[in-house]
């Protein structure tokens, strides 16, 4: 068979008969487009009401090549058709990249031999991946017996590149607005693209939010976009950590997905979560110690004025005491006599509660968020994040599944 562009998918699917369905499908390129094409192809192969018996999505350890070969080779009396899929499969690793899911060189060679040998009748395999190397033997093997669908989009800044990018964004916009029977002003769309850049996933998310925002109105205006679409990638990180701190699990999962769709590395997201939980641990520890010392300076849901009058002075004292301790330790470690003593430098540590005491409002909100947790709960959360960090760096488990499970446990499940 051949390689086709994503724009040709509808025409291609209409041309297929039951006898010439490709046994293997490779969909590669821009993430939003690969997801859309994947859904279309799956709908064509297995209608929704047959999915439970005839479709399997392999993830994590199940997605390793020996496991998927075994699954696609297995017959069942209950299934007249079987479609097996692996998303984000690292079929074409570049030099220097770390392998995941056990896609070693010998595994890829075995997959190539398996493809050449042929699948059982009515068994189909679908792969999605971010990029494909058409020069590789594996790509040519897939192409010889199946279909490769190219969803890549030119990423440069030339006029031709920008034209192709704009066509993809407009197609995404038209598809979503047609579904909701809404329109959008030209200036509003231009502003949306300006804020979003070439990111069809983020564009689609923002359009869905705008549709909800305008309600019964027929069309999205410039002012609607200016009012709603304010998130940058960095803003989304803050939205995620704030949602976790507020125990708003649904919102946290939404922003986790948005960050993943926008291309954030799981370790970046993990670092932001660790930073937020660590801050809450420091605050909660301060609160608990003040209570044990019978000098409580914070009460749940305290107002801001009382916080400034009663709590903030104690925070400043605690931070100053920590500074003095750090300076004493440094003097002991690095100074043998007075002449060797270095010039004093500003002490930097993430153990300070208020690094900038003059800006107390963000600190106040951190205290409010700490009311949602016990110190034990936060300590356990920090330990769990440390375990996730180890797993991510050792490629043990699906990164997004690990992060989702953490959010579900800390932001949705109530502590017993």
Describe the structure.
This protein has 416 residues and is an alpha/beta fold. 57% of the residues lie in helices and 8% in strands. The protein has helices spanning 9-15, 31-45, 51-54, 65-73, 105-117, 137-145, 159-180, 186-196, 200-214, 222-228, 233-245, 249-261, 266-292, 304-334, 361-370, 375-393, 399-412; strands spanning 3-5, 24-29, 55-58, 82-86, 123-129, 147-151, 183-184, 219-220. The strands form two sheets. The chain has a six-stranded parallel β-sheet with strand order 1-6-2-5-4-3, sandwiched between helices. Strands 7-8 form a two-stranded parallel sheet. Helix 8 packs parallel to helix 10.
Brief account:
The protein is of the alpha/beta class. 57% of the residues lie in helices and 8% in strands.
């Amino acid at each position: 068979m051949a390689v086709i562009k994503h724009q040709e998918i509808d025409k291609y699917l209409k041309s297929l008969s039951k006898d010439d369905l490709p046994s293997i499908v490779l969909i590669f390129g821009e993430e939003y487009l690969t997801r859309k094409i994947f859904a279309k192809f799956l709908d064509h192969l297995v209608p929704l009401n047959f999915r439970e018996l005839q479709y399997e999505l392999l993830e994590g350890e199940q997605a390793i090549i020996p496991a998927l070969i075994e699954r696609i080779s297995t017959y069942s009396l209950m299934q007249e058709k079987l479609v097996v899929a692996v998303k984000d499969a690292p079929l074409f690793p570049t030099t220097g990249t770390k392998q995941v899911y056990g896609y070693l060189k010998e595994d890829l060679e075995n997959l190539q031999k398996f493809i050449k040998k042929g699948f059982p009748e009515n068994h189909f395999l679908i792969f999605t991946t971010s990029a494909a190397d058409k020069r590789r033997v594996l790509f040519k093997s897939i192409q010889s017996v199946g279909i490769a669908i190219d969803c890549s989009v030119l990423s440069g800044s030339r006029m031709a590149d920008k034209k192709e990018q704009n066509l993809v964004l407009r197609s995404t916009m038209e598809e979503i607005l047609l579904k909701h029977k809404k329109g959008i002003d030209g200036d509003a769309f231009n502003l949306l693209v300006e804020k979003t850049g070439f990111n069809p996933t983020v564009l689609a998310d923002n359009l869905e939010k705008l549709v909800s925002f305008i309600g019964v109105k027929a069309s999205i205006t410039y002012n609607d976009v200016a009012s709603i679409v304010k998130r940058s990638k960095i803003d989304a990180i803050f939205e995620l950590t704030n949602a976790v701190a507020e125990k708003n699990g649904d919102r946290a999962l939404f922003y986790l997905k948005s960050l993943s769709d926008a291309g954030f590395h799981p370790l970046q997201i993990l670092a932001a979560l660790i930073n937020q939980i660590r801050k809450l641990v420091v605050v909660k520890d301060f609160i608990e110690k003040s209570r044990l010392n019978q000098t409580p300076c914070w009460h749940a849901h305290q107002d801001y004025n009382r916080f400034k009058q009663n709590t903030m002075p104690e925070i400043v004292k605690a931070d100053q005491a920590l500074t003095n301790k750090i300076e004493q330790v440094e003097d002991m470690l690095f100074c043998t006599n007075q002449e060797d003593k270095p010039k004093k430098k500003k002490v930097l540590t993430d153990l300070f509660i208020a690094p900038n005491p003059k800006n107390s409002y963000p600190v106040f909100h951190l205290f409010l968020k700490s009311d949602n947790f016990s110190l034990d709960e936060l300590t356990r959360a920090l330990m769990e994040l440390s375990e996730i960090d180890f797993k991510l760096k050792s490629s043990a488990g699906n990164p997004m599944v690990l992060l989702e499970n953490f959010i579900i446990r800390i932001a949705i499940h109530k502590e017993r």
